[in-house]
Design brief:
single chain, 195 residues, mainly alpha, GMP Synthetase, Chain A, domain 3, 2 domains
């Protein structure tokens, strides 16, 4: 089913949805707990801000699209973490999980590669790239960076395990030194002898 078909199937009348939100808030208020009322109203405000920011990003992406092909515009929108998270949240994202994991990992500062992903458990195993440096790319920092990126693009990933890349074999050091001192007579080539 295409995203457009899914959207049409879930179409909700805006006025009806607004009335429904008001009814739910009224029921919470009728319960008489002022803290619950305040929390409910705050939740509605936060969700409105979240969706409003997502819609603004979509509009900004479309405004910057003139002259750009539809595929490039879609790719730019899918590369936006907020837009992507909204599409995933509503099961409208057109990319599969593996593609979205790749998109998330491309956004990570230190390069990592997918070793394995288990869809049934949501476990993702990645390996840090061998940068040929000191080998000090911190696993906790790399893991946090990967988890943050995945939260927006592929929330179905539940756990992340980061492996260090196998250390590259260090090249042998070439010792360069000075020639041992020789006598001056041996430093100069011997004159050629004439027969």
């Amino acid at each position: 089913m295409s995203a457009a078909t899914q959207t049409a199937a879930r179409a909700i009348d805006a006025e009806q949805a607004g009335r429904r939100v008001e009814e739910v808030l009224a029921r919470v208020a009728a319960a008489g707990d002022p803290k619950a009322v305040a929390a409910s109203e705050e939740l509605v405000r936060v969700l409105m801000d979240f969706y409003g920011a997502g819609l603004a990003r979509i509009l900004d992406g479309l405004r910057s699209a003139p002259g750009r092909g539809a595929d490039a515009t879609l790719d730019a929108l899918l590369g936006d973490a907020l837009v992507s998270s909204l599409l995933v949240l509503h099961d409208l994202h057109p990319e599969d999980t593996a593609t979205r994991i790749g998109r998330a990992l491309a956004a990570v500062r230190d390069p990592v590669e997918v070793v394995a992903f288990d869809e049934s458990t949501g476990a993702l195993r990645v390996r840090t790239a061998d940068t040929g440096g000191c080998g000090c790319s911190g696993t906790p920092a790399a893991q946090q960076s990967v988890e943050n990126a995945l939260a927006c693009f592929a929330p179905e990933v539940g756990t992340v395990e980061v492996e260090q890349a196998a250390a590259a074999r260090e090249p042998a050091l070439l010792q360069i030194g000075t020639r041992p001192p020789q006598s001056r007579a041996t430093d100069r080539p011997a004159p050629a002898r004439m027969p």
